[in-house]
Amino acid sequence: MNLVTELNKATADLAEPVVSAPFFVRGKLLEGQDVTHRSRDLGVTFATPKLDLDQVVHPRTEVPPLLNVPLAEIIDFLVELGERIKDPSNPFMQECIDRMCSTHILPRSVVENSARHAAGYLDKRTLMAEVEQNFPDPKALDTWVPKQDYTGRKSFVRAFAPRLIHVLPGNSPGVVVKSIAQGAMVKAVNLFKMSSADPFTMVAILRSMAEIDPNHPMVQSMSAVYWRGGDNSVEPILYRPQYFDKIVAWGGGDAINNVIKYLGPGFQLVSFDPKTSISMVGKEAHASEETLDLAADLASGDVMILNQEACVASRFIYAEGDQEQVDRFCAKLQKRIAERAAASGDIRPLDMDLKEQIETLMMMDDEYGVWGKADGKGLVIRSEEPVDFHPINKVANVVRVDRLDDAVKYINVATQTVGFYPFDRMADYRDRLASGGAQRIVHLGEAGPSTIGNPHDAMYALHRFVHWMAHEDGVEA
Amino acid sequence: MSTLAEDVAATPEVARGEAGSAVEKLTGQVADPNRYDYSAEELRATQIAAINERFQDRKDRIKLLGHRAEEANISEVRSLEDVVPLLFPHTAYKSYPENWLMEERWDRLGKWLDTVSTHRVPPQDKSQIKDVDDWLANLEKSGHFVSCSSGTTGKSAMLVASQKDMDWCKVEAVAAYSWGSGVKPLRDRRMFGLAAIAVVPRNMATGEAYTAALQDPKFERFHYPVPPITVGSLTEMVVLRKKIADGTASPSDIEKMERISAERQKAVDDAVGITADALIEARHDKLHVTGLWAGLYNVAKAVRDKGYSGKDFNPENSIYVGGGLKRAKLPDDYREFVYETFNIQPERNYQNYSMQELQSGMPRCQKGGRYHVPPWVVPLILNKEGDALLPIQDGEYEGRAAFFDLSLDGRWGGVISGDKISIDYSPCACGVKGPTIRDNIVRYADLEGDDKIGCAGTVDAYVRGVS
């Protein structure tokens, strides 16, 4: 059933404007309004050209265009791309931000900042660190690296350029930039499947790239298109090992279930799973008014990353202390979340179902505490156990615990980042957090940044992207 | 010859509200053969007055309603617009913390239920209640009939109703059926239910009423040979799913549930042959067949495989199919296949539009093929977001369905649905004047799908339920 994507003959009846979302296929911009789609987040309609499946597959009889371009040159090219993305006179990026604001759920300032911030990844030292942390010997990307074992058997090993499909999320321009850079550094042939929540940013960046040099092998290695996730006229055809080695996918639920059915020998999944991040605040926060203010401020910063749309944004805060102490923390936390929300101009109301559940808790006031209103301006719920809905849109759930040890049981396989206060207790907890499934433990207030080149989603992704090829060369005479 | 309408007329206590009230004026028409034939425009003032009667009586009794009224600053319902902020989304009936169900905190759940109930839910003594079925049975003793929805992958909705509501369902369900299908309740049919029914008060009440109206007393009603679905058994699945998510379910817990699930599937598979044989044996009698499409299709296929088809069955057979396909994969012609197998003429194929949050139905007429809204159910067609009333238009227009069911006693009558519907206030092709809904209802959720991908998500994405 495909009720939402329909051929364009129906669009004449639509009262609302249709935003154009062109494709970019191996250096060429493809414009057209053949098919219209709905962006769920804002209920906006966008139109794309018809997808020509033959164009987006790079034949296996031809080696990937980037294969013999040195990594150093690729990185220089990416750095230049970063400058173009940040350049306020770049018409593609400006147009993209305009369009994004008509389809994105976040306010304009947040979209602008995150696009600029994303380009920060395209830094020479950052990119080199990424490669060096992922590969014991990055030279394997550029050449066949000689090896010899203790028996005298010799060989050459190459981190060979793979063919990748990237199923992009719609909530972060940072992922768009990273996907381009990582795909380029492993010299892959890349097909980017854009999300309905952002069918623009990837194409704008690829157009900026083509401006630098339309014939550069990097430009020739990248295509960005849209089809509706799960589309049976596309996925069963493209998702084959004869066309691609790996599918790099973000998200869970239907998005991943659609992909999983096509996995098999030769067609593997590298998944960036959907994650929930939390905070743990120790009793030391209650030492003084200053420490409590500090902990509340740091926690509010983690809650409000990308206005709580990102996976690193904290949703549950386990707070050690008695109810009176924890309630004082909640009041301060709510105040800071509301201030940050107001400063970003984010006035999105809460989803009806979420509002309903929160209002029920407000009526059961002998068991729950609620600070703020269910109006989307920032709200904190205090409970003895985590609430059973997903706090989103500036909503934090503070779970009171006698000891932080009692919070460890709530860590699960979906837990990504744990922001911790005070910092000197982190080492006591990290083994148990990892055992429960968590992936990062960070200073409270610093959920965003990470040491350059560190693993993401419990893996070194670039290492998994490549096609490790061995050339056996006999035994030393 | 007695018709159902006459039977109902003889039971005046089914009508709701004080004598002479607007509510009574509208609900009192449940037995009127011309009840769907009215001008919505002429009736509107009475409907608004009736909603206000309900509102004035309930605002201090239903805690959630009081909260809504206060937030929206509404003290009186003077227009349909005033009703919109007072509507409850379907999630209102599943807003209890699921942990309470897992931890069997019946006292807390009782307190929650009280926030959506018209009649006070007495304090529940935890120590006297052994499980969820016991808790529900206990509530019935105090006149609270709670029907749970069968959400196997998520929370169950808990819909509280009163004895008056149970009495209403018995009368209204059969009356709507009789109007829509043209089948007179003459107790001259053999009823074959082809689906396992959830054991909840509303199903029990309507099942009893249908049996009293249609079942030929010379025969025993056919019992579908599958263990009944109790709320306890539904809850077990929900609790297990939650435990899998928390990581506290052991492999043996999952193994046990897989075993129960496999036994259940075997009972369902075995039931097909048993039911087909029973239907073949009864083929010369006048039958009334009910169920869901998947079960009906499987039994019909078994009947055909045994060499029987339409020509062998009684030409006056009738059918009532509940729900949609529920993701079952069937051949394109599954409907025709079922009708033809049991020799069901198009006019005796009953369709009804309703939802569990309401208790009155909207039967589909034979000639116009549209669902008719009775005068005691007030349609409110909202924008997609569900926060504003669309102006009532000439001709057909579409929007999010919300209704106020004036017959409801035990809980609030105003609910917002997840359905996209097309309504028309002009007369139907069948000649009846009241508002009608086109037979093309879809859920907004199904339209939108889940194309959105973000890096943020919950542990739900990591849970594979049992098969």
Q: Give helix and strand order of chain B, one letter per element, not per position.
A: HHHHHEHHHEEHEHHHEHEHEEEEEEEEEH
Number of helices of chain B: 15
Secondary structure tally: strands of chain B: 15
Detail the poorly predicted runs of chain A: 1-14
CATH class wording of the largest domain in chain A: Alpha Beta
The overall pLDDT average of chain B reads 88
User: What number of domains of chain A?
Assistant: 2
- The fold-level CATH name of the largest domain in chain A is Aldehyde Dehydrogenase, Chain A, domain 1
Biggest sheet of chain B, in brief?
7 strands, mixed
Average pLDDT of chain A: 90
Oligomer: heterodimer
CATH architecture identity of the largest domain in chain A:
3-Layer(aba) Sandwich
Instruction: Give helix % range of chain B.
Output: 25-40%
Classify the secondary structure makeup of chain B into a structural class: alpha/beta
Most extensive interface: A-B, 58 and 43 residues
| Anisotropy-based shape of chain B | globular
Percent strand of chain A = 15-25%
SS strand fraction of chain B: 5-15%
Radius of gyration of chain B: 23 Å
Distance between the termini of chain B: 51 Å
Q: Can you say what the CATH homologous superfamily of the largest domain in chain A is?
A: Aldehyde Dehydrogenase, Chain A, domain 1
